[in-house]
Amino acid sequence: MATLPELIDAFAAKGKVLLIGGLAVIAHGLTRTTKDGDIWYEPKNSAAEWADDALQVMKDFHQCSFYDLAGKRRIPAERLLEIVESSGVVRVVGLDMDLDVFRIPHNMDAEDFEGAWRRSLPCKGSYRLMDEVDLALTKFDTGRSLDISDSSFLEGKANDKFGVIAASADFDTVRSLLDRIENHILLAKALENPDEAVVKLAIERLKVMADEGNPFAEEILAAFVTRKEAQPCDWDSRQS
Fold it and tell me: Fold for domain 4-130?
């Protein structure tokens, strides 16, 4: 029986492949199990070109077949393009573990692939691992409890990773970071940045969050004001 890694490597030999889904979350460090694998195979210029690549790859996996997740049935090769155009994903069954091959993952567009590829991390084999933020985005608002716990883990990891950047990087770098992933934790770290422009940006965004009813943003702003008021003024410092 052919294995899931063998099929992933076959796709990676044809084009760019990002590991996503449960296996990617596990690769990022979360201890959990998964029943299938997920990859994002580069969208190509069209669904037809993408489907043609998938058909070429599958020629060496005679025991495998395509499966329509929405219709919950196996499909003949000639229906692959139809399924990919309608749902953006097809499952391959007949391996030691099923593999979902995406042209367009949840919450992503075809044009997002190259950016996700640039931000991705080295992984075993010839494919790459989607980074924490992009991976969390694919799991946002799915309604699945497992995706909620995955997103929480990934966001926590991203906060640890990018908190140092928010607290120390230059204005343009921090702004780009916050445009991509913005939450009260990273904004609190940005308040520690020595660049006054970064601090001003963080305050502005925290105020928006607070106005929208985020209690954590309100607490962070209040604590920041208290710290600033407690700091000695320049005259007091010179007299001490």
Answer: Beta Polymerase; domain 2 (3.30.460)
